[in-house]
Amino acid sequence: QVQLVESGGGLVQAGDSLRLSCAASGRPFNWLNMAWFRQAPGKERESVATISSSGRSAGYADSVKGRFTISRDNAKNTVYLQMNSLKPEDTAVYYCAAATDIVYNYWGQGTRVTVSS
Fold this sequence. Notes:
The protein has strands at residues 3-7, 10-13, 18-25, 33-39, 46-51, 58-60, 68-73, 78-83, 92-99, 106-107, 111-116.
């Protein structure tokens, strides 16, 4: 089992920045591919950013490219999502997810991000 605990959400204004953190436990962190997903009100959950177990490879949704950066610190068992130039449409509950292979089958409880215009 993998336990994931997110933190760092909040209420910000458009153009502001936030950094989300996700602390993992239960499995060797450097075995895990990690990702951030989000779910806005009335919408399906969508992938925002992914990062490989080594941290060498990352991917982003088109809607956040150039604004968000995913990173990880394997010594601290933590993955981060740096969010810059936030927009009202980034408002959502953000979830951290972990995968031991290609399926994200471990999820955190979510942290809410609200961006006001």
